[in-house]
Amino acid sequence: MTLLDPFFTPFTCKSLKVANRFMMAPMSRYFAPGGILTQESIDYYRRRIEGGVGAVITEGVGVDRPGAVAADTVPVFAGEEGLAAWDKARAEIHAAGGAIIPQLWHVGGCEDFNYPDSPHPPLESPSGLVGPGIAGGKPMTQQDIDGAIASFVRGACDASRLGFDAIELHGAHGYLFDQFFWDVTNQRDDRFGGPSIASRARFAVETVAAVREAVGPDLAIIFRISQWKTYLYEAKIATSPAELAEWLVPLAEAGVDIFHCSERRFWESAFPDEGDLNLAGWTKKITGKPTITVGSIGLDRDLMEDFVAGESVPTLKSLDELARRFDRGDFDLVAVGRALLADPNWLMKVRTNAVSELLPYSRATMDVLY
Ligand SMILES: Cc1cc2nc3c(=O)[nH]c(=O)nc-3n(C[C@H](O)[C@H](O)[C@H](O)COP(=O)(O)O)c2cc1C
Question: Residue 324: which domain range?
């Protein structure tokens, strides 16, 4: 029995059936001219399944609403051509034996982090803010909110109709849902704002409820959360387990099946005064739902350090800790980002301890799809 054997067991949650516990984390690649995914990207995703991971969570894909994404090379999950390309990706991933989950994305008021000068329709956000004193997007009216919810519902229905295995709603990293969650960016005085995290979660709760009602009981809904924002790494939405419960229990009750808990380093305690559970551990404990953990698995440096530095060295040293937490039942699934972006065969090599053969990740890796 090797360290990773427990991860090579199947996982099932409603429509989502995965052969093992490893998933590719959602990573924007900007290789979709005019918002249409190309065969090159499909091949890139299929290679990760051929390399052994159970499921691909796709890069963020724009929902069917103007300004949902802020760069014209981000793929969209809308329109005949856009959906046909994604359906081809689905068919090829399924033929290779994997599961595929589109990550439905609305950036809210955020310009694109990587391509701030890319042309895009006007943006919208809860209160015209994307950070402390940082303006972004036009404050949304009730009609805008209804329209945004409807665009997530359309995306989810299309995913279900086309036979995707689940959907993921991108509620993390400072984008639309997160702009509602965070008091700094949500200064509304209607029922979508207010001093409690429960009231600021209402937009997401109503979206999840509308999606659940439209797709029926079987499609697995994954919701991605984070404390940190692309603009501010130390930001926190929940400062205690009690606040985490106020935030996430209503989402679970509205229909979320799995929470994807984005952290920069999976081994860090979410609430250091309360023991060593990470965000996925606390979320599972509080909601009773399966969770996905992520963050610096297989690498020596976290993703924000990578934006300013050179090459990340592949390492297996954190895998003991990953296995310890998994055996304890803290989470059910593991998402791997940069290590898999750099090496489609990362999992096979890690399983056989072929560390010296692992391809390293660097910013330059971002410029090519392979
Ligand atoms: C190039 C790149 C693009 C990313 N794009 C997305 C995205 O579209 N949606 C998302 O939720 N997270 C995105 N992330 C965050 C990753 O999903 C993941 O949480 C993060 O990289 C930490 O995992 P890792 O340490 O294994 O890379 C991106 C990360 C990278 C490196």
Answer: 5-367
